[in-house]
Amino acid sequence: MTLFISIIYCILGVALAALVLMQEGKSQGLGSIGGMADSYWGKIKGRSMSGNLEKFTKYGSIVFLLLTLVLNVLMK
Question: Cα torsion for 60, 74, 72, 5, to the nearest 10°?
Answer without folding.
Answer: -30
